[in-house]
Amino acid sequence: QVQLVESGGGLVQAGDSLRLSCAVSGDTVNGRAMGWFRQASGKEREFVAAISWSGIATLYADSVKARFTCDRDNAKNTVYLQMDSLKPEDTAVYYCAAAWGMSATIRAAEYDYWGQGTQVTVSS
Fold first, then answer.
1. Which of 2, 12, 36, 79 has the most beta carbons within 10 angstroms of its beta carbon?
2. Cα angle 92, 53, 68; round to 5
3. What does the alpha-carbon distance between residue 113 and residue 110 come to, in Å, rounded to a whole number?
4. Per-residue DSSP letter, 123
5. 3-state secondary structure of 45
6. Where are the beta strands (DSSP E) in the chain?
7. Within 13 A of 35's CA, how many CA atoms are on the CB side?
8. What CA–CA distance (Å, rounded) separates 31 from 56?
9. Radius of gyration (Cα) for the chain, nearest Å?
10. CA atoms within 13 A of residue 58's CA, in its CB half-sphere
11. Which tens digit of pLDDT belongs to each residue from 69-117?
């Protein structure tokens, strides 16, 4: 069993930065790709970023490319999402997820463990 706990969310102004963390317990993240998804109020969950188990390969949604950076520290069983130049449209609950495979993927169906989420609110 894998447990994922996100932290680092909060209320910020447009243009600010936040760094989300996802701590994994119950199992190692080694061998698993990790991803970040978000869900805004009244909208469907959408892919944000993913990173391969080695950390070499990353994928980003077009809406966050060049503003968000996903990285990981396998020794600490932790994955991060650095969010810069935040916009009001980034407001959402952000979820960390662990994939069953090693390769970064945008497909939610390829993630089998999910965190409870952390709220990010960006005011204009």
1. 79
2. 35
3. 10
4. E
5. coil
6. 3-7, 10-13, 18-25, 34-39, 46-51, 58-60, 68-73, 78-83, 92-99, 111-114, 118-123
7. 28
8. 13
9. 13
10. 19
11. 999 999 999 999 999 999 999 999 999 999 999 999 999 999 999 999 9
